[in-house]
């Protein structure tokens, strides 16, 4: 089967894939030459009555919870469509900041609905790609032929709606999922047209095995790296060096833009303080961030060999020179024990706050083969079969997850005890969400709202009351 792209975008009830929900899904399949294949997909997903959306999300998307209920599919219905119709074998899932945002929402939705949360982007020829870092590296190294926007302060910005605007691409309804998908296809075409060599190279580098050949600890060498974690004035691009191993078989890389002297003699405790510093602590005038970050091989990082800088004034474009890089690298390599201290800090660092909610415990471990079979049996069961279906799961997350799955999608399959347990959990979840929602509503009420915005906030309040 020929490989195809499936460009997709989500509109969600908030920013947390663990806590918030998908409200709109849009997608368009294309061939690898970016010609559209078939009709676009544009659907709503029902918001359940256990979720209070962020009021700001409604103002941005223009979608109300009531609209999702009236027009949308249940999560179980949508999950089935996603796996069987959208992300089919040999499909390359592609989006804009999708690896860090949309893909995470998809994973959590599939987890809640008893589908494998990973297979949709790797099994049977499937893969994924993220155009945001492609945009970043193109802007940094090969900007010719494309107009690049700046924000009100004159700083570079890669917002999709601004890139389309300055390049004359139609994008009338930014933050509508389908409009964003169509705009993204046009931006991909723009890069492919004007910088085809870089486009094809980064398309190949979406494969983690290709990234590992360039960035590894067996043959350490500096490389070009574009990431949202790097500085805006330098187009989010730098020269990095693989320093030491990171959790989950990844690698920690050092930003060679920065002199290692202030960091290489720090104690492990001092390094830990910098790595785990809060947002408030990082705003202090004298705070020096540790110029180290994990590079995750399976997240389609935009990386390239130093040779790309030899053309088109590459070094000047990212405000670096070989002498500075060589000087910083020499200091880094001579720093005995520094890499080991950094590795230990990252190994002991909690990846995210622990939760007692099984819906937020996706990354707490993989399922056993036996439980994978039971999970498949759950999603293949009819509502009637679910009434008396009580699998003997090995994983302690799954019994409660099954209760939630039944309650959201097949509430009539619940016993009285199950309904009572569900209502207790739902009440706790809503009470946890409520203070932040009320605070947001109060702040929004002080603004001068348009008629449409007033309507959205009225709908929000009605959802809250119900």
Short characterization:
Helices cover 44% and strands 14% of the residues.
Plain-language structure description:
The chain has helices at residues 55-61, 65-71, 75-86, 102-112, 131-141, 160-166, 177-194, 196-204, 208-214, 261-264, 268-275, 279-282, 314-317, 322-333, 338-348, 369-379, 383-387, 398-409, 416-445, 451-465, and strands spanning 4-12, 22-30, 36-44, 91-95, 127-130, 223-226, 237-246, 250-255, 292-295, 302-305. It is α+β, with helices and mostly antiparallel strands. Strand 7 (237-246) and strand 8 (250-255) form a beta hairpin. It is globular and about 70 Å long. It starts with a strand and ends with a helix. The mean pLDDT is 96.
The counted number of beta strands is 10
Strand order within the widest sheet?
3-2-1-4-5
Radius of gyration: 24 Å
Just give the CATH class of the domain at 207-335.
Answer: Alpha Beta
Give the count of helical stretches.
Answer: 20
Structural class: alpha+beta
Features:
466 residues; alpha+beta; PX Domain; Monooxygenase; five-stranded mixed β-sheet; five-stranded antiparallel β-sheet; 44% helix; globular
List the helices and strands and how they pair.
Layout: E1 4-12, E2 22-30, E3 36-44, H1 55-61, H2 65-71, H3 75-86, E4 91-95, H4 102-112, E5 127-130, H5 131-141, H6 160-166, H7 177-194, H8 196-204, H9 208-214, E6 223-226, E7 237-246, E8 250-255, H10 261-264, H11 268-275, H12 279-282, E9 292-295, E10 302-305, H13 314-317, H14 322-333, H15 338-348, H16 369-379, H17 383-387, H18 398-409, H19 416-445, H20 451-465
Parallel strand pairs: 1-4, 4-5
Antiparallel strand pairs: 1-2, 2-3, 6-7, 6-10, 7-8, 8-9
Helix pairs in contact: 6-7, 7-8, 11-15
């Amino acid at each position: 089967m020929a490989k195809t792209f499936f460009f997709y975008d989500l509109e969600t009830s908030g920013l947390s894939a663990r806590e918030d929900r998908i409200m709109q899904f849009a997608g368009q399949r294309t061939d690898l030459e970016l010609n559209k294949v078939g009709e676009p997909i544009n659907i709503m997903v029902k918001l359940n009555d256990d979720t209070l959306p962020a009021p700001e999300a409604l103002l941005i998307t223009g979608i109300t919870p009531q609209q999702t209920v009236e027009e949308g599919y249940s999560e179980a219905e949508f999950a089935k469509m996603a796996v069987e119709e959208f992300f089919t074998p040999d499909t390359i899932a592609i989006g804009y900041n999708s690896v860090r945002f949309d893909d995470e929402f998809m994973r959590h939705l599939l987890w809640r609905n008893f589908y494998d949360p990973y297979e949709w982007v790797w099994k049977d020829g499937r893969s994924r790609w993220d155009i945001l870092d492609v945009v970043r590296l193109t802007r940094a190294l090969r900007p010719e032929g494309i107009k690049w926007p700046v924000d009100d302060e004159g700083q570079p910005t890669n917002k999709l709606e601004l890139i389309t605007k300055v390049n004359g691409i139609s994008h009338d309804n930014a933050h509508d999922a389908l409009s964003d998908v169509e705009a993204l296809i046009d931006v991909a075409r723009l890069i492919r047209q004007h910088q085809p060599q870089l486009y094809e190279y980064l398309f190949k580098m979406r494969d983690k095995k290709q990234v590992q050949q360039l960035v590894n600890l067996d043959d350490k060498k500096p490389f070009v790296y574009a990431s949202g974690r790097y500085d805006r004035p330098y187009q989010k691009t730098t020269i990095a060096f693989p320093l030491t191993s990171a959790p989950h078989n990844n690698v920690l890389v050092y930003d060679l833009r920065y002199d290692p002297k202030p960091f290489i003699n720090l104690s492990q405790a001092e390094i830990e303080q910098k790595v785990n510093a809060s947002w408030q602590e990082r705003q202090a005038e004298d705070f020096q961030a540790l110029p180290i970050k994990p590079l995750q091989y399976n997240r389609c990082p935009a990386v390239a060999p130093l040779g790309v800088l030899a053309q088109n004034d590459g070094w000047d474009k990212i405000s670096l020179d070989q002498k500075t890089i060589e000087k910083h690298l020499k200091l880094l390599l001579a720093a005995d024990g520094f890499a080991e201290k950094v590795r230990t800090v990252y190994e002991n660092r909690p990846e995210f706050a622990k939760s007692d909610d099984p819906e937020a415990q996706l990354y707490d471990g993989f399922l056993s083969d036996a439980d994978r079979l039971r999970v498949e049996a759950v999603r293949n069961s009819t509502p009637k079969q679910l009434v008396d279906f009580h699998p003997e799961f090995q994983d302690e997350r799954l019994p409660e997850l099954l209760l939630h799955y039944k309650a959201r999608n097949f509430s009539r399959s619940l016993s009285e005890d199950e309904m009572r347990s569900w209502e207790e959990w739902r009440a706790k979840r809503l009470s946890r969400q409520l203070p932040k929602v009320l605070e947001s509503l109060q702040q929004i009420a002080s603004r001068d709202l348009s008629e449409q915005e007033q309507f959205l906030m009225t709908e929000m309040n009605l959802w809250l009351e119900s």
